[in-house]
Amino acid sequence: MFIPLHDANTLKHIRVQWVTLALIALNLAVWLFTSLESELAAQATTVGLGYIPAVAFGHAQLAQGLEIVPEPFTYITYAFIHTGIWHLASNMVFLWVFGDNVEDAMGHLRFLLFYVLCAAGGALCHGLLTMTSEAPLVGASGAISGVVAAYVMLHPRVRVWVLVFLRVPLPLPAFVPLLLWIAQQFFMLAIAPDGDVSWGAHVGGILTGALLILVLRRPGVPLFDRQIVTPRAVRDEADAVAAGTGGRSGQRLPWGRDRG
């Protein structure tokens, strides 16, 4: 539906989004490691670290030698395994754009806890909907869905640059693309619950993130802020037009210094 590019939402409580950056680096490192493995070893890693509902709910057992971590740990470890570069990139770009402000609203340690619990919530929802499935669930989308839900509850009116249908860059209030994205996850779960994409994990992450932001945000951090933040590129163009330059001088890209 869209790819987020940048928001103009500066950090207020932390200087650097260390946890967000560390999560991106860890996901990238794990993908690089698994991509260097043989195909057989990569499959074994997916089975050993992925979340398998049939195993989690006692309907099946992993063959001897395939278990890498105890089964309860797979509610988290699956979120760091990706099947390809585009699978990884699509998750990480959402984390890069939206994770820093959610981390800012919570603090480093609470954001890490939030991320892990959203991953677990996504896995649990997927498992409850597909208890006998022996297919491993992998990917960070459950955790990322929680980040998206938290962001739209914190900053629904902040303008975000998004690439719509991979073609058209638009600055939109965050609630427009994000609520449409959230609605899409519920809709797809209703019409295609058994597809290749685990919409259940997305919905579980969304619900977990929406609940956790209520209790994990810093004291005094409001929900549904009312300030509209205009991307700097739009402000620069408006100033240039007002000065009679037609917006051609000094225009900046929308993903400049402000972190998103």
TrEMBL record:
Short name of any one Pfam family annotated for the protein: Rhomboid
GO biological process, one term: proteolysis
Listed GO MF terms: peptidase activity
Topology versus the membrane: Multi-pass membrane protein
Main location: membrane
Keyword annotations from UniProtKB, A to Z: Hydrolase, Membrane, Protease, Transmembrane, Transmembrane helix
Subcellular location: Membrane
Family indicated by similarity: Belongs to the peptidase S54 family.
UniProt protein name: Rhomboid family intramembrane serine protease
Species whose genome carries this gene: Rhizobium bangladeshense
